[in-house]
Amino acid sequence: MTDFLDACRAIVGAANVLTGTDMAGYLTDWRRRFTGSARAVVRPGSTEEVASLVRLCQEHRVPVVPQGGNTGLVLGSVPDESGAAIVLSLARMNRIRAVDTINNTMTVEAGCVLEAVQNAAADAGRLFPLSLAAEGSCTIGGNLATNAGGTAVLRYGNTRDLCLGLEVVTAQGEVWDGLRGLRKDNTGYDLRNLFIGAEGTLGIITACVLKIFPQPQAQLTAFAAMRSPDDALALLSLTQERCGAALTGFELMSDFCLQLVAKHFPQMRLPFPQSYPQYVLLELSDSESEEHANQLLEAVISEALERELIQDAVVASSIAQSKALWNLREHIPLAQAEEGKNIKHDVSVPISRIGDFIRDTDVLVEQAFPGARMVTFGHLGDGNLHYNVSPPENGSPDAFIAHQEEINRVVHDSVNRFGGSISAEHGLGALKRDEIRRYKSEVELSLMRTLKQALDPHNLMNPGKVI
Q1: How do beta strands 373-379 and 247-254 pair?
Q2: Which residues lie across from 282 on neighbouring strands?
Q3: What angle do CA 148, 154, 159 make, to 5 degrees?
Q4: Distance (Å, rounded) from C-alpha 284 to C-alpha 290?
Q5: Distance CA 465, CA 142 (A)
Q6: Cα angle, residue 66 at apex, residues 64 and 71 outer, rounded to 5°
Q7: What is the C-alpha separation between 8 and 43, in angstroms, rounded?
Q8: In angstroms, rounded to a whole number, what is the distance separating the alpha carbons of residues 138 and 115?
Q9: Quick one: CA torsion of 201, 162, 131, 36, rounded to 10 degrees?
């Protein structure tokens, strides 16, 4: 092992090979529920160094766990407990290589923090629309590895849809330069989409070409109260009919979500003096003018009130008010964490079936685990729900968490009955690797295994994840 680590130091410099207690922050997952072990954390500064390290790991048969900001929620970016692997941190590879405002593209390295990519686009008078709660610490490489979603998928798509080209170090330590800023390239297999969403199990993404967009002339935010998810779906259809592509965000949250925020963050003001069963936070991004955006939003709110799809609504009149409304949504996971241990589910179902899914699954969970509290929120516009379950108010959190597999089974079986997916935007990692076998066909699993075997025959790329 000493010879191997010395060879790593020769490639990246001794200061960028961490061992012992210096590795601590890289070995524990974001939710601090699991800590793995590693030979070392190695921090390359270039694609060439990544390739050299991978070739070295192939020679010594050392597994490689790629890591960006380590903000994942499914144990995809931390090593197992064997101590056999190295963690390959891409944090030093954080350069914005190029911005092309005519082609509306930006070439960035995988270690760039998402917020830095957003800011670089804004500095060029453009918009990079991917937006996540962890955008101040997650990296674009991790976003691509998990095909992250966020709040603007409804208008702009997942990270996959925002990427035109990749640079990848293969499992053999070769560099595939696919950094082409082309919207059309029909020349064979789509290798780019093979690596996106693969969670580092097929190769290591080191850079990418991203789409950027003109900055909208106006962004308006509204918060609406309603009786049920079905009314929220009707409001979604109405808003899409009246506003088209201007609708960029449409978030659903239950009253219990807001009550948790109010309980643990009392400084945050709720938008209404009374409670309602459900709420929607919607955002319009208009390319024409603020006046035009206001007209669109006012017309939608008025019609929704007339049709009794909503019971009340507030429209942000300033950037500060808009941020305050978005903060309510973004503080839901933080409030649930303050409330105590909980069981998270990142699921998707066809948008038209979300109301039925919530109703049916709520009943099933309550029947199996009386008193369980559902913290249901998410990106209604693209069918992605965070269907989280908290223990009964006066129950034992540890006793409740002991039933995690049973609760997962209730929720995931319900997702499957509704034609959905048990992972919408977080990936599979190690946490859901075995669970997915219940819901994918043997044909699909066999195809995935064939790809893995072909591209990584020695199983050194993030082993134990996805498949």
Answers
A1: antiparallel
A2: 222, 250
A3: 25
A4: 10
A5: 14
A6: 140
A7: 10
A8: 8
A9: 10
Q: Which is nearest to 215 in space by CA: 101, 379, 316? A: 101
Q: Which two tokens stand for residue 103?
A: 């082609």
Two tokens, residue 6: 């010395």
Q: Which fold has domain 218-325?
A: Alpha-Beta Plaits (3.30.70)
End-to-end CA distance of the chain: 28
Select 2-89's CATH number: 3.30.43.10, 3.40.50.10260, 3.30.565.10, 3.40.50.1400: 3.30.43.10
Distance from C-alpha of 463 to C-alpha of 433, rounded to nearest angstrom: 11
Q: Maximum CA pair distance of the chain?
A: 74
Q: Are 115 and 133 in contact (CB under 8 A)?
A: no
Measure the CA–CA gap between 111 and 52, rounded to whole angstroms: 18
Q: What is the pTM of this model?
A: 0.93
Give the fold, CATH level 3, of 340-429. Answer: Alpha-Beta Plaits (3.30.70)
Structure tokens at 183: 């919207």
Query: What's the CA angle centered on 348, arms 214 and 136, to 5 degrees?
Result: 45
Tens-binned pLDDT, residue by residue, of the chain (467 aa): 679 999 999 999 999 999 999 999 999 999 888 999 999 999 999 999 999 999 999 999 999 999 999 999 999 999 999 999 999 999 999 999 999 999 999 999 999 999 999 999 999 999 999 998 899 999 999 999 999 998 999 999 999 999 999 999 999 999 999 999 999 999 999 999 999 999 999 999 999 999 999 999 989 999 999 999 999 999 999 999 999 999 999 999 999 999 999 999 999 999 999 999 999 999 999 888 888 989 999 999 999 999 999 999 999 988 889 999 999 999 999 999 899 989 999 999 999 999 999 999 999 999 999 999 999 999 999 999 999 999 998 889 899 999 999 999 999 999 999 999 999 999 999 999 999 999 999 999 999 999 999 999 999 999 999 99
**303: Cβ contacts below 8 Å, ≥ 6 apart:** 238, 242
DSSP string, 376-426: EEEEGGGTEEEEEEE--TTS-HHHHHTTHHHHHHHHHHHHHHTT-BS-SSS
